[in-house]
Write a structure and sequence with these properties.
Layout lengths: L15 E5 L6 E6 L9 H12 L4 H8 L3 H14 L9 H10 L5 H10 L1
Antiparallel strand pairs: 1-2
Helix pairs in contact: 2-3, 4-5
Length: about 120
């Protein structure tokens, strides 16, 4: 079970104010910040676990999830942002595929552009 990060009553952000040793009972009180990974919701954690299962193969991840490669890349970029990591610059191939997905170019145009890269 994942540690809650939101108040069950008002949905406000919970903060950690103490830790207790299960072995000796010592308690540490204060205000502690949580790691950035606590910003991820359940769906994002499932995405990360699947990403690790396929060893970072975004094409395989897209196939399993039934979504496009650019959508997988966008979700990964959102997670990277939540974790405080800078987004990876898009490759020319990714830009072409995103243009195709948005309907800005035809399949033939995309294939021609991909041959050029």
């Amino acid at each position: 079970m994942r540690m809650p990060d939101r108040c069950p009553f008002c949905k406000g952000k919970l903060e950690v104010t103490g830790w207790r040793c299960s072995s000796c009972g010592v308690e540490v009180k204060g205000r502690f910040s949580l790691p950035p990974s606590f910003e991820l919701d359940e769906q994002e954690w499932e995405f990360v676990k699947l990403f690790l299962e396929v060893r970072g193969n975004l094409s395989e991840l897209a196939k399993i999830l039934g979504i496009s490669y650019p959508t997988v890349r966008a979700r990964l970029d959102e997670i990277r942002k939540k974790l405080g990591l800078s987004p990876q610059p898009k490759t020319k191939r990714e830009e072409i595929l995103e243009m195709l997905e948005r309907g800005e170019i035809s399949v033939e145009e995309a294939l021609e552009k991909l041959k050029e890269t």
